[in-house]
Amino acid sequence: MQIFETARLTVRHFAQEDAEDFYRFNSHPVVMQYIRPVKNRTECDAFLTENLNLYQPGSCLGRYFVADKHTGHFVGTFSLLYMSGTDDIHIGYGLMPECWGRGYAVELLKAGIGYFFNNTKRAVIFAITEPANTASRKVVEKAGFMRKGPVKQQQKPLDLFYINRGDYRA
Question: CB under 8 Å to 69, separation ≥6 — which residues?
Fold first, then answer.
């Protein structure tokens, strides 16, 4: 099921048929450097099933398949998930290396922010980056996020960013 699109990208639910792309993404050490530990095939298959179970009617939570709108090729992922230990929601993205440097990340985040505010009543959405991930920090800032400050999740230092509903401009 498609959830939104941009001028160049389509964002939809993952399906079981996407297992190979899901594996390529989650097993790629460069892609996973700032996201989570690399997963093997068995772990990826279980993780895909876990993610498919996140999709619930009336909820925007989940990890989503991002495709090039014109070719249908897998570009990466987009997510709206609870922040660890809270009921706050953070937005996320990850792109395959061959898709870096094309402006997809900012395009995806801007559209994702709109999708989030149009489909929830929440007043704020967050983004999280690792301090060393300067490229991602620049992306979230270009998308309009403001830095709230450093936080720790599971003893890991992170930078927290936010956008208030009232400050969002489509």
Answer: 5, 6, 7, 8, 9, 10
Beta-bridge mates of residue 126: 90, 162
- Output the CA torsion 99→167→61→66 (10° steps): -20
Between CA 81 and CA 34 the distance in angstroms is: 16
Helix (H) or strand (E) holding 116: helix 104-119
Asked whether the whole model's pTM tops 0.70, one would answer yes
3-class state of residue 73 by DSSP: coil
- β-strands 62-68, 124-129: how paired? unpaired
Pair 66, 11: CB distance under 8 Å: yes
Nearest CA-CA partner of 116 in 159, 55, 163: 163
Which tokens belong to 80? 């709206």
- Could you read off the pLDDT of 17-63 as tens digits, one per residue? 999 999 999 999 999 888 888 999 999 999 999 999 999 998 999 99
